[in-house]
Write a structure and sequence with these properties.
- The structure is a single chain.
- With 549 residues, the protein is an alpha/beta fold.
- The chain contains 13 helices and 19 strands.
- It has helices spanning 42-45, 56-69, 104-116, 135-142, 199-213, 261-273, 289-294, 316-333, 349-352, 356-372, 400-404, 450-453, 460-473, and strands spanning 36-40, 73-76, 120-125, 154-155, 174-176, 182-184, 219-222, 279-282, 303-306, 338-340, 376-380, 481-487, 490-497, 500-507, 513-516, 520-524, 530-531, 535-538, 542-547.
- An 8-stranded parallel β-barrel has the order 1-2-3-7-8-9-10-11. A 5-stranded antiparallel sheet has the order 12-13-14-19-16, covered by helices on one side.
- The radius of gyration is 23 Å and the shape is globular.
- The structure holds 1-deoxynojirimycin and calcium ion.
- Residues 47-49, 51, 53, 55 line the site of calcium ion.
- InterPro entries: DUF3459 (IPR022567), GH (IPR017853), GH13_cat_dom (IPR006047), O16G_dom_2 (IPR045857).
Length: 549
């Protein structure tokens, strides 16, 4: 028997999420080990005051939607006062809120509202670099001998930069101050790197963690957690800057992954341990997955995002390798895998997987795969609507990657375009329909609108909601153990938990696949799945969850 997607049966005036919801079931293991975390790109989620920029009030008003969807937590991209050079990742004040987004009391209100709905709030913290407008850097510019100067990497004036390090956004990693000194920035020049060998830096970040933890947040996503420390002698990198598909390798040995950084995570873990049920999830972009896993040893970060699926082509060996290697590497340190299929730095998966109907079918199948795997799952806002990568005209682009590469790299604006809420002018992003969104929303995005998808029983949105509900009912999904195998173009993840087994079977080939099964189909990612007593016929680019008898 195949499960049917349940229509919410709503009128536009009475949205389904306006109904009361039950609090989530108590879990025996810490919540974060199997949480579904929804990533909110704050600037693009919902605009509460009509200035075309997403904000905390807008997000608060949409919390019932997230609760209706069935996620456990939300992670919010940086909300701090910022120089605006890199989407908020250039922070001016770590213990404040950018007035564009609201103020500290809005964060408190958000946390309180979220808690009432059974949702946790995770913030982003950016310890590798500050904004060049941060008071420390401003002081260091004004006076090379002030204490703040030793909190960054400055080098005396000279013809050539101190070494061969390159910025990840293009160009050299060193720029000059007005008085001719060099300073280090592994990202944009507006993001000077902090010197973690100065103890004041560590002390200040611990203050920041406590500031937000005291306000009830459930933890932090840690930006560039593989950075912070640099080679003490600032020696040249041994190789050309050419990161491999999965992250930095030995060619960048002097800039990333210095052994000292692990002590920072041990201290941060100890701080979090003082606050029950909080967690740290790191961004660790290293080519060697065993090195990544070391960041999630039992006394360090609770987990590290696993980007393997995000960077894999639609192909059984690539997906099987991505899943198997992550399970093994994180399993060795006893950490859960944190699976990612989309975020604010990569092209939307519908587009990555081929675009159009094919890309969408694959993205739907990938969603079932993501939500079956043991560990936590990170869902990027808009992926539950099947949004494709948006075309953003060059003149509207904001991403420093586009500018620093002289337009050679498209940049990340296309995955950061505001959410379509209603099929009206302005797609319901701003309270005021005539407000100009900070990035242009393609006119055809009305068809992806939340209001429209809630009324279509076969929509991507309903698929996500249904999958989250089924996942919550079956311990085999998310909290179980898994093995991965392939047969031709068919990928199978066998998940066992709570004494039951659920198989997630994905047909990544071009022909219908016949899958032997005596089980019950719990959910299918798209139409055309036929079940008989002994088998399931799976169309191309489709996934099913089968509960074994
Ligand atoms: C990783 C973030 O995800 C990205 O958006 C940002 O540009 C860099 N870190 C620098 O902070
Ligand atoms: Ca706003």
């Amino acid at each position: 028997m195949s499960a049917r997607l349940v229509a919410a049966g709503t009128a536009a005036a009475q949205q389904p999420w306006s109904r009361p919801v039950a609090p989530p079931a108590t879990q025996e293991q810490p919540w974060w080990r199997s949480a579904v975390v929804y990533q909110v790109y704050l600037r693009s989620f919902a605009d509460g005051n009509g200035d075309g920029i997403g904000d905390l009030a807008g997000l608060r008003a949409r919390l019932p939607y997230l609760s209706w969807l069935g996620v456990d937590a939300l992670w919010i991209n940086p909300h701090y006062p910022s120089g605006g050079a890199d989407g908020g990742y250039d922070v001016v004040d770590y213990r404040a809120v950018d007035p564009e987004y609201g103020d500290v009391s809005d964060v408190e209100a958000l946390v309180a509202d979220a808690r009432r709905l059974g949702l946790r709030v995770v913030l982003d913290v950016v310890p590798n670099h500050t904004s060049d407008r941060h008071p420390w850097f401003q002081a260091a510019l004004a006076d090379p001998d002030c204490p703040e100067a030793s909190r960054y990497h400055f080098a005396p004036p000279s013809e050539e930069p101190p070494n061969n390090w390159r910025s990840l956004f293009g160009g050299p990693a060193w720029s000059r101050t007005p008085d001719g000194r060099w300073y280090l920035h592994l990202f944009a020049p507006e993001q000077p790197d902090l010197n973690w060998r100065d103890p004041v830096v560590a002390e200040d970040f611990e203050r920041t963690l406590r500031f937000w933890l005291d306000r009830g947040v459930s933890g932090f996503r840690v930006d560039v957690a593989y950075g912070l420390y640099k080679d003490a002698g600032l020696r040249d990198n041994p190789g050309e800057y050419s990161p491999t598909l999965f992250g930095h390798g030995p060619e960048q040995a002097m800039t990333w992954n210095q052994p000292e950084v692990h002590d920072v995570w041990r201290r941060w873990r100890a701080v979090c341990d003082e606050y029950p049920d909080t967690m740290l999830v790191g961004e660790v972009c290293l080519a060697d997955l065993d090195e990544v896993a070391l960041y999630s040893r039992p006394d360090e970060l609770h987990q590290s995002l696993s980007f393997r699926l995000l960077k894999s082509a639609w192909d059984t060996p690539a997906f099987a390798e991505a899943i198997g290697s992550a399970l093994e590497a994180f399993g060795r340190v006893g950490a859960p895998v944190s699976w990612v299929l989309g975020n604010h730095d990569k092209d939307r998966m519908v587009t990555r997987f081929g675009g159009g109907g094919t890309g969408l079918a694959r993205a739907r199948a990938a969603a079932l795969l993501l939500l079956s795997l043991p560990g936590s799952a990170y869902v990027y806002a808009g992926d539950e609507l099947g949004l494709p990568q948006a075309h953003v005209p060059d003149e509207a682009k904001q991403d420093p990657i586009f500018f620093r590469s002289g337009g050679e790299r498209a940049g990340r604006d296309g995955c950061r375009v505001p959410m379509p809420w209603n099929a009206t002018t302005g797609v319901g992003f701003s309270r005021d329909r005539s407000a100009k969104p900070w990035l242009p929303v393609p006119a055809e995005w009305k068809r992806h609108a939340v209001s429209r998808q809630t009324r279509e029983s076969g929509s991507v949105l309903h698929l996500y909601r249904q999958a989250l509900a089924v996942r919550a009912e079956h311990p085999a999904l998310g909290t179980g153990e898994a093995t991965v195998s392939t047969r031709g173009h068919v990928l199978t993840v066998r998940c066992t938990g709570g004494g039951r087994t659920v198989r997630c079977v994905v047909n990544m080939g071009a022909d219908t696949a016949l899958v032997r099964s005596r089980g019950r189909v719990l959910l299918e990612s798209g139409p055309g799945v036929h079940t008989s007593a002994r088998s399931v016929a799976l169309p191309p680019d489709t996934a099913v969850w089968i509960a074994e008898d």
